[in-house]
Write a structure and sequence with these properties.
This protein is 0% helix and 40% strand. It is built from no helices and 61 strands.
């Protein structure tokens, strides 16, 4: 199966209402203002200046705050991989920081100003999930990886050697050092907890009393290192009071068996914080004997990392799986969002209100739906009625009543809003497959909806989503990644599939035929775009780049000249000039003004290069890109926008890779 793509910026003038519409900020350069937040994998506090805080994100690299989280700025120069899973600060030189990423370890000596690779000695394709620094010999580092291995460096990351030969860990998800005896290290792995007492030369499995061994996180009590805690995925929390030799469950008050993160108050041995499934943050003041929820003001239920300020037990930070960083200044009693400037939300779908183009919707991975009413300058979460931590792969706005929205989710089906996203209701009755990749509306009769699903094929509703019927006759591949409807003849529909190429229907999906001549064999089609003025011309983002057909898909030819990144996830046509086409790729946005004849990079200012969604305003005045670091906009004219006439077909193209 092909890999499914699942899962900042320049200051700009604020949007101003001139005539009947706003003036956009991103004039002839890409800019972003959010959505703020995103998936936080790791947090680290500068021990010498506790107002300095670093956040490692799953998609947007590293962010830095110099005011205790009030504001953030991106610090990714030289960081060639933006999937950051671990951060560790050298206690003897706090400007020296190590980052564990999808591409090994990176190092900075100037507080994130510039990063460089520090991965010599790692296995090929090593992913680093955890890093620990010896507090007494800070050039000695340990790294936990995805390949059954712990690696060790004794020269500050210049060289690494394997320190766990013969162990079968699975993934080394967490490392914790005994601060009083740094040769003792604990490794939390998917096969249990391991301990070394000799700096990694030998390891011992520690399983006595532990009924679950899928360990996500390990924490050592700094005040009394004999107390060790382990959070698991199936057995909740375990505690050892003898350095890991014996374990006992410590779950009283925890509602879920999943514990993703742990931290012990460095100033108070009995105070422990844990994140528990989707239940938020829990606190124990009895060393894990009992727990109680501490979620007031915590908008995100899924917390992936917790840290306590080493000099102030009242200050606790929580990194969430979808909504960024939260801070408590009263030991967890109340929480506040701290995301100004932290733009790491992974955007998978875009939609523009074609009556009022200043209104934009963004579907995200894990964060649900965001809305902006001021051309992207500010965003708000509009998830009332959506499942928590929703992956939203598709969005559609009713062209005749833009208060009506549809959202296709990765596991919960189709949702509909009748009030511009203020609230949502599930519209998945008899929709047998809930993994929805694409949603398209009939431009003439918007109550007719087609959805493409993972392994369920195509479904159609003729009553605005109340009821659905299967539309798979002739559709031999039912893993449908994208759909496109002919803007001049809504009976004509195209479906792009995973390893099955393109299918075409002339009767609104009642019957399908494969149309793959010239496409790669077993082609994966991530996106489709139809020329709005000449609908016999179609473009597909397929395995190997962009392909073009001028005869409704009967024959395809490559259209890749100048396209240096052939991992293309999204396509959009400028409706005002259909020879102009945009491709969202692994390496940014590319533009052609010749209908795919030649391409050139179109990414100036686009800090996060992975583009999974594109949308063009129907008048061709601006372009939106959904990236792993938020929504970027590019304005082609600095003239104000007036609202388009009602009743016309929206000219945007929305597509996203899964």
């Amino acid at each position: 199966m092909a890999r499914r793509k699942t899962w900042n910026s320049l200051a700009a003038a604020a949007a101003a209402l001139l005539l009947a519409g706003p003036t956009w900020a991103g004039y002839r350069i890409w800019t972003t203002h959010g959505p703020e937040g995103g998936q936080i994998s790791t947090l680290a506090i500068d021990p010498s200046n506790r107002s300095i805080l670093y956040a490692g994100t799953a998609f947007g690299g590293v962010f830095k705050s110099t005011d205790s989280g009030s504001t953030w700025s991106v610090v990714n120069s030289g960081l060639t991989d933006l999937h950051v899973y671990a951060l560790a600060i050298d206690p003897s030189a706090p400007a020296r920081i190590y980052a564990g990423t999808l591409a090994g370890v990176f190092k900075t000596d100037n507080g994130g100003g510039v990063w460089s690779a520090a991965s010599e000695g790692f296995k090929q394709n090593a992913v680093v999930f955890s890093i620990a620094i010896d507090p007494m010999r800070p050039k000695t580092l340990y790294a936990g990886t995805n390949g059954d291995d712990v690696f060790k460096s004794v020269d500050g990351g210049a060289h690494w050697l394997q320190a766990s030969t013969g162990q079968n860990y699975g993934v080394v998800s967490s490392l914790a050092i005994d601060p009083k005896s740094p040769s003792t290290i604990y490794a939390g792995t998917f096969s249990g907890v391991y301990r070394t007492n000799d700096g990694g030369a030998t390891w011992k499995a520690l399983r006595r009393g532990m009924t679950a061994i899928d360990v996500f996180t390990v924490a050592v009590d700094p005040s009394d290192p004999r107390n060790v805690y382990a959070g698991t995925g199936l057995g909740g929390l375990f505690k050892s009071e003898d350095g890991g030799d014996d374990w006992a469950a410590a779950n009283s008050g925890l509602p879920s068996a999943l514990v993703q993160s742990l931290t012990v108050d460095p100033l108070n041995s009995g105070v422990v914080y844990a994140s528990n499934g989707t239940g938020g943050v829990f606190k124990s003041t009895t060393g894990g004997q009992s727990w109680h929820a501490m979620n007031h003001g915590l908008a995100a239920a899924l917390i992936q990392v917790l840290i306590v300020d080493p000099g102030d037990s009242n200050v606790v930070y929580a990194g969430s799986g979808s909504h960024g960083v939260f801070k408590s200044s009263d030991a967890g009693v109340r929480w506040a969002s701290m995301n100004s400037g932290l733009t790491s939300t992974s955007v998978s779908a875009l939609a523009i209100d074609w009556v009022n183009p200043a209104t934009i919707y963004a579907g995200t991975l894990g964060g649900g739906v965001f809305k902006s009413v001021d051309a992207g300058s500010h965003w708000s979460v509009i998830n009332h009625g959506l499942p928590s931590n929703s992956h939203v792969f598709a969005l559609a706005v009713d062209p005749k009543n833009p208060a009506i929205l549809y959202a296709g989710t990765g596991s919960d089906g189709v949702f509909k809003s009748l009030n511009g996203g203020k609230s949502w209701s599930i519209y998945s009755s008899n929709l047998s497959t809930r993994n929805v990749h694409s949603v398209v509306l009939d431009p003439d009769e918007p109550a007719i909806i087609q959805v493409g699903t993972g392994f369920g094929g195509v479904f159609r509703s003729d009553d605005g989503g109340l009821h659905w019927k299967v539309m798979n006759d002739g559709l031999t591949n039912r893993d449908v990644l994208c759909l496109a409807v002919d803007p001049k003849n809504s009976s004509v529909l195209y479906a792009g599939t995973n390893e099955g190429g393109v299918f075409r229907s002339f009767d609104r999906g009642a019957h399908w035929d494969a149309v793959n001549l010239g496409l790669p064999r077993r082609g994966v089609i991530f996106a489709l775009a139809i020329d709005p003025k000449s609908p016999t011309t179609i473009y597909s983002a397929a395995t190997g780049g962009v392909f073009k057909s001028v005869d409704q898909g009967k024959k395809w030819k490559p259209a890749n000249d100048g396209l240096t990144s052939t991992e293309v996830f999204a396509l959009a046509i400028n409706p005002a000039a259909p020879e102009t086409l945009y491709a969202g790729t692994q390496g940014g946005v590319f533009q052609t003004n010749s209908g795919g004849g030649s391409w050139s990079s179109f990414s100036a200012g686009l800090d996060n290069g992975v583009v999974r969604a594109l949308a063009v305003e129907r008048g061709g005045r601006f372009l939106l890109a959904g990236t792993e670091g938020g929504v970027f906009d590019y304005q082609f004219t600095n003239a104000p926008m007036s609202a388009p006439e009602t009743g016309s077909v929206p000219g945007e193209a929305v597509s996203a890779a899964r």
